[in-house]
Task: structure prediction
Amino acid sequence: MGTIAVYPGSFDPITNGHLDVIRRATKMFDRVYVAVARNAEKTPLFSVAERVALAKQSMRGWPRVVVDDFEGLLVRYARRVGARVVIRGLRAVSDFEFEFQMALMNRRLDPAIETIFLMPKDEYTFLSSRVVKEVAGLGGDVSSFVPRIVESALCQKLGVRRKGGV
Ligand code: PNS
Result:
């Protein structure tokens, strides 16, 4: 069956930082489930279907990646798809506390599932979906932070004109 990992998140929307982590994960695992959480954030900008579609379009042709969504406990989802590993990106010390808590809670819930942290390229250290939404909403150029399809979706959703790209 090969090695399977789950990379869960809100992905509201997917950014180049997420894509960098996924690319690294695909070098380590035979299959990586990019799993969009249905219940992570109460007021997301994009619907689950939109987030899944943007992730799929951003990774068209990538081998070993499956984009999916899940509801409820992450460890249950991981078990269901046969994954023993949960991947999370770690950008800075500020991420650590929440990630530490989540990893240990998931371990308590299912000791067979291990969390592995991957660090994105240093140029993405400052990047987050929240900041990208804020910059895009204020009319800033986000073309180097997200795939073009996501930039277009952001501008459409937020009612602003595209700033960057070709
Ligand atoms: O991109 P995010 O918002 O940091 O992702 C958080 C996410 C979706 C990974 C986390 O909220 C999650 O795993 N939710 C599923 C519910 C769950 O299993 N909770 C227990 C672990 S703390």
